[in-house]
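Example 400.
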Amino acid sequence: MSEDLVQAITETLGACLADAKRPVALHEPCFEGNEWKYVKDCLDTGWVSSVGAYVDRYEVELARAMDVARAVAVVNGTAALHVCLLLAGVERDDEVLLPALNFIASANAVSYCAAVPHFVDIEEETLGVSAERLRVYLAGISERRQAGLFNRTTGRRIRVLVVMHTFGHPCDLDALKAVCDEFDLPLIEDAAEALGTQYKGRPVGSSGLLSTLSFNGNKIVTTGGGGAILTNDLVLADKAKHLTTTARRPHRWEFIHDEVGFNFRLPNLNAALGCAQLERLEEAVARKRALADRYRAAFAGISGVRFFTEPSHGASNYWLNTLILDRPFAHLRDSILERTNDAGLITRPAWTLMHRLPMYGSCPKMDLRVCEDLASRIINIPSSAFLGGPAVRQGHSSPV
Ligand SMILES: *Cc1c(COP(=O)(O)O)cnc(C)c1O
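Predicted structure in complex with pyridoxal-5'-phosphate:
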């Protein structure tokens, strides 16, 4: 039976990707629009660096795509998170709540602020933070004082909640916002994986004080490397721009910097790539959803595993497609990873949980049973947008 499941998953995946050249990468970029034209324009005009028309244009178009008032483009998603934490008031020795099933970016960004990550659990329906369990947990461990919400166990202030839309699936923002309001915590959305994802009919990224995007090479829209800070608060947006552009006061010739800022601005060359990529976002989401449909249908007939589908409250961009093994078969995860990778079908497990990493092993955390359980059963499968295209184009030869 065990051997059957390893074989069935490998064969089904192979059949879904029959037309694609081997190896089939986990996620690779797709440059089918104006990318060459816009990048060439930067080279032809000499506007390649930290100033230029594509940066302004990219910020305007990103804000429109995400339905927020302002977007500030930065060098990567980690830098975006770092600056958002500072803007939310995170100070040395504060605690920042974030899910343990996560990419390393947000925990590291908390460390850059000399603050402490505090890990919370997720729910199986969304793979995002469980609002209900967070409420119960905070009611048990926290205490409201004049200076804010405090962790009674550690004595530190709990400053903000950073939620994440795992693999592009929208977490339950209304429920999470309600918990934040109840405990008077600002909310930050790490929407790095969720450009093109909707929650209750609107793009994610506008429920909290601030949110972030990433345009790394493996994301749905790439600028090579890049990120953005999004907000509906115009004062915060101006502060984000100031802080990420060396805190330089506008002046025709003087160099006056009025605080310790960061040189985090996205170069024009990268923004040019982003402008071209963003023009094709809708198409990319449609292709990814088509690929997800194909996977869902194919894996429906295999018992022992299920294809993870979007929660009912939203529409996912299906950034990274996910299989979840039934509990009795969790022990087969590594055999399946080995067999599929051997067959040129690139698959990966979920990230190592944050509290299992050496530098975050002693951080405060709630009971992380759902993270622990799911991390042992998740397998991510090839998800490049072109795989869901009308005719499966050949991939690039080197995976990102
Ligand atoms: C990609 C990603 C980021 C940001 O990564 P950068 O490489 O710094 O752009 C942040 N959070 C999550 C969940 C991500 O997947």
